[in-house]
Amino acid sequence: ILMIYDKNQRVFYHILKKNFWKCLKNDSLYNIYKDLGINNLYYDSKENFWFSCGDSIIRVTPDTAFIYSNVFIRELNSTHKIRPANRTIRKIKEDKLGNIWIYLFALIKENDTTWSEYRMLCKYINNRIETIFTTKNFYQFSSKCNFVFDNQNRIWYVNGDTCYIIKDELVEKKFSTWETKDGYGYFSDLVIDSKDNFYATNNSMLLFKYNGDTLISDRRILDIERYITSIGNNYWLRIDSLDNLWVIGYETCNLYKI
User: Is the pLDDT assigned to residue 233 strictly greater than 60?
Assistant: First the structure.
């Protein structure tokens, strides 16, 4: 069962997966996809469904469905297949102008003998998926949340220990976890408040705040959690409508309000 929230009507509704796949009018495609899982489901402002399935991104409109299995990499000026399946497509989200952004983590064949892992922030442009920001993968750790939008429609994109602020598809500014006194590790969960302040945890629950000029770190939750349980990834950072931060501890039931 797929639970879907309609932002315009402000209501939830559900649909069975087998019925959802009927959007694929082609019988052969239906038979290929009908038993596969649906991940990263997103419902945009134009009433399109976006989601990942295996090594493909699928867009379902009110009339038909489109399947995207390739990404155009600007830095290489070439088109490549999205691979391997089930681990490449990590996030799909719409910005304030209605543009669809996608985060990919994929293997790219650079030549006949060389394959490299890339992390890619992509945008849906001219009926294809194009990269906006691409880096080779040097990190074993993968962030829980890879990008967010602020009130100026800038993108705050994290890659390992660095956050890039991207405006009009160009990097406007960047900063790293290592710029604070106690800072270390990789950015993991992240949120933006109503004043465009950036908050993030690292992979050890150190909390960071960046106000546009200065990055500071807060280790209060880390100092509590480190004596309760081992470091894990079962934690969450969220922000409410009043800009209160809420954090759930590693593997504890602790709920923190900041």
Answer: no
